[in-house]
Amino acid sequence: MKNLLSMEHLSNEEIMSILDRAQHFENGKEPILKRAYNVANIFFEPSTRTKTSFEMAERRLGCTVIPFDAEFSSTTKGETLYDTVRTLEMIGIDAVVIRDKEDEYYNELLEGIGCAVINAGDGAGQHPSQCLLDLYTIRKEFGEFEGLNITIVGDISHSRVAKSNATALQRLGANIRFLCPPAWAGDFEAAHSWDEVLEDSDVIMLLRIQHERHSVSKNFSKESYHEEYGLTVEREKLMKKNAIIMHPAPVNRDVEIADALVECERSRIFQQVRNGVYTRMAILETILKGRD
Ligand code: CP
């Protein structure tokens, strides 16, 4: 694996290999990298989890993390992404982790760039490292994906997490359902109400409303969205025994999920964050070891 750009490029075997390696790291075992690789994290959109988690993973793998501040980079003077990455490559960077607001920004890096590219989120396109940590979290819980009912709720059409997870989980045998306001379903067919999906879901995966990707604001107050599409305290009581709640975060409490449920027994929201470090170690190791 040279790059990680989209879940559509990964075979089921490659996915399972990364999840196994994440488990290896969670078990406290060592990486197999032969040298200290140089990595830069290039984020043109805000991030708390993904950026910090990649940096923690890089440090645990013994990489040298070269600081890159998008706001003070020469991209603000008009330098292209290609020229930025090519420049970093010439300076000695082995891998770049990139988040950008453009869908498929990575297409301009496919020719002529020698360093590895890891997609940390492209617009409303894909978020493969989030997807892999979500898969790791689900596999830890249920052991397999085949036959699981997984319901993704919220701003589906603007969510890269929804697309990456739908692609991968369907291929791994899970039954994926969507629940969202009709205008946010995109190409997916969505359920009409919680009644159709609540009681038989093994996983309820909630999504934040991606206001930054909406061209027009929708007619929802926080309260009305929570009432119609949020996971309320009353709805949680109807969930199946052993069913879990997931959310890629950041969470808007009392909008997509009731404040009281964020750290309830069923919630895996903060475990997802922890699992992200092991999963990103596995992603980086898989890619970097191919450069030895
Ligand atoms: N889940 C996720 O991508 O969070 P950040 O935007 O904080 O990285």
UniProtKB/TrEMBL annotation:
L-aspartate binds at residues 77, 160, 208. Residues 2-139 form the Aspartate/ornithine carbamoyltransferase carbamoyl-P binding domain. Pfam families: OTCace, OTCace_N. Its EC number is 2.1.3.2. One of its GO terms (molecular function) is aspartate carbamoyltransferase activity. It is an enzyme of class 2 (transferase). HAMAP family: Asp_carb_tr. This is Aspartate carbamoyltransferase. It comes from Solibacillus faecavium.
